[in-house]
Amino acid sequence: MGVTIHDVARAAGVSVASASRALSGRRKVTPEIAERVSRAAAELGYQPNAVAKALRDRTTGTIGMIVPGIGNPFFTTIVEAVEHQLQETGRDLLLCASQYRPDVEARRLETLLARRVDGLIISPCDIEASVPAVLNAARRVPLVQVDRHIEGGGADWVGVDDDSALAQAVGHVAAGGARTVTFVGSRLMNSSARSRLSGFERAAARAGVNATAPLLGEFTLEWGIEAGRLLLLDGETMPDAVVCGNDEIAVGLVRALRAGGVRVPDDMSVVGFDDVGHATMCDPPLTTVRQPVEEMAAEAVRLLGQVRVSDPRPAQRIAIAPRLVVRETSRPVAAGGANGTEMGRGTA
């Protein structure tokens, strides 16, 4: 049998109540008693009963997190960043993947709620179909959305400023001489896919470049390869540059273009989005928009500490500005041009 609070109290020569108060820190005891109890606990190797503490405090010290899939390097990176932030506050992370399916996402939410998590951080997989389950969970525990969000908001959100990101990407390729630009992204099932396409269209109009019909599939390497093959079929009508919805698409696209005899960036510039995992492993290294993952994670955890269930305040939206990282898949900026990079943080 393990060491109990009774053993600590006996060794310290105090009552069980005094030992409990000294160890919990919820009620003050004299410095002498605190020292005696602390020394006795250390000598005996006493470990508090986490279950009893959770029942007493009505907390579990755990935060649930749901992402669409951990195979995507971006989600792996944001999960690691959130876990690091939680560790700083002594909390643990319970992670689930929705497998890009709203029905699975709803079941994962119920599982985490049954585990009595103190709060939830979620990147909803579907902007519309995820709404009922996310709103239901937000009525039961503090909840913050990260990266993606549901239609109409409904809960606090932290993500990247997609308008700034696409303005930098399009501005950069335009400054490098591109006059015709294609966007390759994901079908419009989630908020990131929608906001990046709309951000591209606005940026292209401001930059005065010709935006061809977008190619929309999945946020995957395989779709990038397929999109590259589709561009190769167009032959002489290929664009001067391609801006991609994430790095996985961009890496697949570069691979397909080079296999088809297109020189990157001499014949076509390619810009990705995320700057995680694949970007530096691309051949040549990928020019991309870097998401401020650490800052996003810190803001998400900070907001989670502020959220109160049934709080009438409007949901907060924090959009953090990214930074363009220029490598070798884009043409150099033409003389007198500007690459459109910027740094900073804003609210949306």
UniProtKB/TrEMBL annotation:
<dbReference type="Pfam" id="PF13377">
    <property type="entry name" value="Peripla_BP_3"/>
</dbReference>
<feature type="domain" description="HTH lacI-type">
    <location>
        <begin position="3"/>
        <end position="57"/>
    </location>
</feature>
<keyword id="KW-0805">Transcription regulation</keyword>
<dbReference type="InterPro" id="IPR010982">
    <property type="entry name" value="Lambda_DNA-bd_dom_sf"/>
</dbReference>
<protein>
    <submittedName>
        <fullName>LacI family DNA-binding transcriptional regulator</fullName>
    </submittedName>
</protein>
<keyword id="KW-0804">Transcription</keyword>
<dbReference type="InterPro" id="IPR046335">
    <property type="entry name" value="LacI/GalR-like_sensor"/>
</dbReference>
<dbReference type="InterPro" id="IPR000843">
    <property type="entry name" value="HTH_LacI"/>
</dbReference>
<dbReference type="InterPro" id="IPR028082">
    <property type="entry name" value="Peripla_BP_I"/>
</dbReference>
<dbReference type="Pfam" id="PF00356">
    <property type="entry name" value="LacI"/>
</dbReference>
<dbReference type="GO" id="GO:0003677">
    <property type="term" value="F:DNA binding"/>
</dbReference>
<keyword id="KW-0238">DNA-binding</keyword>
